[in-house]
TrEMBL record:
It comes from the Bacteria. Residues 65-153 form the Restriction system protein Mrr-like N-terminal domain. It comes from Pontixanthobacter aquaemixtae. InterPro entries: Mrr-like_N_dom. This is Restriction system protein Mrr-like N-terminal domain-containing protein.
């Protein structure tokens, strides 16, 4: 018995219900949505870099590279976010814009929000956890990976 599957049927077959909405998880429609999401993530990252350059702020990449340096010196290349927060200013010159109060987290400075974004945005392309430079083995803990160590070594050579 041969059955022709159109895109609506495929979407129903390869989707799951989340919060009352059908979310596609496999198939051509999913791949198209995933590719579009990657494009948006890439554009957003590019715009954030430009904004940070114009405002005199450190970029999220600058903060993430400083985290790698902190962890390189930490015992077992692992530390809590609070330990990293205490040591990060030793590895990154923070501007007044970096030290300003975050709009979305009023109890934190902008650079502290960027530090926490490393964990909360772990699934976004370009994130140091997603790229494999860092890992979060437990809640609130970051560890430098071998790949992160190699990245630091290659970045130092440039």
């Amino acid at each position: 018995m041969e059955i022709e599957l159109n895109s609506d049927i495929m979407a129903k077959l390869f989707s799951r219900r989340v919060g009352g909405r059908s979310i596609v998880t496999k198939g051509p429609r999913y791949n198209s949505l995933r590719n579009r999401r990657k494009e948006i993530d890439e554009r957003t990252r590019s715009l954030r870099l430009k904004l940070s350059e114009q405002s005199g702020r450190s970029s999220e990449d600058d903060v993430a590279k400083a985290v790698l340096k902190v962890l390189l010196q930490a015992e077992n290349h692992k530390a809590t976010l609070n330990e990293i927060r205490e040591r990060l200013p030793e590895f990154l010159e923070l501007s007044d814009a970096d030290r300003s109060v975050s709009d979305s987290r009023p109890k934190e400075q902008v650079w502290e929000q960027q530090l926490r974004n490393i964990v909360s945005h772990r699934s976004v392309d370009g994130n140091f956890i997603k790229q494999g430079y860092l890992e979060s083995p437990e809640r609130g803990i970051l560890r430098l990976t071998d790949r992160g160590h190699r990245f630091l070594a290659s970045d130092a050579n440039q």
